[in-house]
User: Fold this.
Amino acid sequence: MRDYKIETEKRVEFIKKKMAEAYAEGLVFGNSGGKDSALVGILCKMATDNVLAVAMPCHSKRNYGEDMDDAVALAKAFDIPMITVDLSETRSVLTEAIDKELTPAALSNIAPRLRMTTLYALGQTRNALVVGTGNRSERYMGYFTKWGDGAFDLNPIADLTATEIFEFLRYLNAPLNIITKAPSAGLFEGQTDEQEMGVTYKAIDEYITTGETDPKSKAIIDQYHKVSEHKRRMPTVYGE
Assistant:
């Protein structure tokens, strides 16, 4: 069990240090209404009052319902300034402009990439750093969008498993619904992380931390990790 009081202090100092090194005046992060963005938002608010939460609904009905409600609840509970940038029309215009039949995966990944474009536009305008919200479990599985939610200036929770994220949020008294609802990227209707991956976060975290899990889960986790290795590396360039 981690000492979350000390963890909180260290992570807040980490954020402050990275801001100072970059001569940044503030922070921006995507407020999805999920567990990871909630923890990041709380830590950012502890580091500076100049933080902006950005809700970016895009196409999925869930983005406008439960997730938006939870994003607003998080912002209100911790007094975090928040704006909403609706990207649904932008997504439609882009897909029409491409004018090609895109695969379901390609379509799903448009939203995270539009969101990161939005965050960097706001960040540059505000002289603010973009804060990442991915956890250790997602990174190991490659369960993030390359150049989407996988892009950021700093990430204060990347070493935490999904299990530890939940524990951290309980310690910080985050809104209960954010802690108890099924994790979902909200990319399409009815989507949940565990259903899409075919394995539970409990099994993933067990494997990451102990090297052991059941054979079926191990096979799934190993395959996800193998095929997503390119996501965890800098782009390959000739001569290196």
Observations:
- The radius of gyration is 18 Å.
- The longest helix spans residues 104-126.
